[in-house]
Amino acid sequence: MNAKQIVKLSNIIGITSILLLVYWVFTFIVIEVFGLKVFRENMTESFYLSILGILALMAGSLIVNLMFNLTRIAERKNEDEVNTKSNRRKFAVLLLIFPLILIILFGGDYLTSAKKEKMLISSAKSIIESNKANSDKLLNYTFSKSYIKETTGILRVLSSTDKNFPSVTLIVKDSIKDSPVFLGFNAYYNESLDSDTIQPQKVNYIYQTNKEERAYLNEVFNKNSDELRYSSSNGNYELFYPYKKNGKTIIIYFSEQQRYGKLGS
To answer: Structure pTM?
Structure first.
């Protein structure tokens, strides 16, 4: 391989490295800003390693060019005109890659969320059906120590049944001083309740919601809706699963957080 071929090869490597760096940084910024979920895990580590690899390629090509003193200028006007037209086409193609990256990222995020929804709903149904007796016990809601303790044990079983749901919460509707509230019970039991002198307080079990969630919960408890509610945001997947029997209604809330390698994670 002569010097000219080495120059050409090093230039190709250098330009390719720069383009890869630009596209990868653009991809990473879009994913971080919009919270897209396309890659599974360890994205941050992969990003840093890939940046290091690209910079190494750029540095290597630069060193080769410096060693061979390779700075070449086009010689003829005609060649300049041909090269200008060709460069314009190449530049247009390179610009078109940016919207293509956006389509791939947003499309991948949508497909990931849709696939996750089907999987979580299927898992939730399986969990409840395979624990029918325990699920039925949750319907007998009364705000008491015995119910809270039993519910804690049942939810611990439900959350351990499927790895897709590390967190399971029971949501019921109640009232505090004639004001309607939603109460939430999870798999963590407050052992201080075993004391005869300490009584559970409803205010300590209020399930905090936003406007959309309150509207949905009221539809389920007040209007007998049995619609499931699935949402995904920034790696957090949530499923509200109404469970009804003999005129009684509860909601089992499943949640999972999928790590996708955000900065700082």
So the answer is: 0.65
